Amino acid sequence: MHRRLKFVLGGGGIVLAVSYLVSTATLDSATYYLTVSEAAESAHGGATVRVKGKVQGGSIARHAEEPRLAFVLSDSRQQLRVRYDGLLPDLFSDGREVIVEGRLDGGELRAQAILASCPSKYDSPDGAAPARDR
Question: How many structural domains comprise the chain?
Answer without folding.
Answer: 1
